[in-house]
């Protein structure tokens, strides 16, 4: 199974995004995925919004992992978004979110989906990882941190 380090591309790291709502966040993610990977923005926005209606993907400690299955997607797509200003996200600890890890998977990628979700949860539960992530100034630094995160455990 591919890891986050294998799947996250530098061009899918977005730093200091300015949005004022979850809706705008999902629209920006959809616009990025459409422009970079040809994925229809409307499908992404709809899928992420529907998943969020089922229950918040906010983990706590300023982190959310919005994830969804996307029709006609052939490979797992990941993105990391750091918000300029934190957003309310209905996280269990009530804290607003500034670290967004997006996971978009093909309809049939059940095992891979769960594996990536578990890996992301472990990463973002690590305080040293989050602290180092916030020090990254460039997408390449973020990508390198995701590649070497296990060294921080």
Q: How would you summarize the topology of this molecule?
A:
Elements: H1 4-7, E1 13-17, H2 22-37, H3 41-54, E2 58-60, E3 63-64, E4 67-70, E5 77-87, E6 97-106, H4 110-125, H5 127-135, H6 139-148
Parallel strand pairs: 1-5, 3-6, 4-6
Antiparallel strand pairs: 2-3, 5-6
Helix pairs in contact: 2-3
Please explain how this structure is put together.
- With 153 residues, the protein is α/β, with parallel strands linked by helices.
- 45% of the residues lie in helices and 23% in strands.
- Strands 1, 2, 3, 4, 5 and 6 form a 6-stranded mixed β-sheet that branches.
- The chain is globular and about 35 Å long.
- The protein starts with a helix and ends in a 5-residue tail after the last helix.
- The mean pLDDT is 92.
């Amino acid at each position: 199974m591919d890891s986050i380090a294998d799947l996250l591309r530098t061009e899918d790291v977005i730093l200091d995004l300015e949005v004022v709502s979850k809706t705008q966040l999902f629209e920006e993610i959809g616009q990025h995925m459409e422009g970079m990977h040809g994925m229809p923005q409307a499908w992404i926005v709809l899928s992420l919004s529907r998943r969020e209606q089922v229950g918040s993907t906010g983990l706590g400690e300023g982190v959310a992992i919005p994830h969804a299955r996307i029709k006609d997607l052939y490979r797992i797509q990941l993105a990391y978004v750091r918000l300029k200003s934190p957003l309310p996200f209905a996280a269990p600890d009530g804290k607003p979110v500034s670290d967004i890890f997006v996971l978009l998977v093909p309809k049939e990628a059940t095992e891979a989906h769960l594996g990536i979700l578990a890996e992301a949860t472990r990463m973002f539960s690590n305080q040293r990882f989050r602290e180092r992530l916030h020090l990254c100034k460039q997408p390449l630094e973020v990508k390198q941190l995701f590649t070497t995160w296990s060294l921080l455990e």
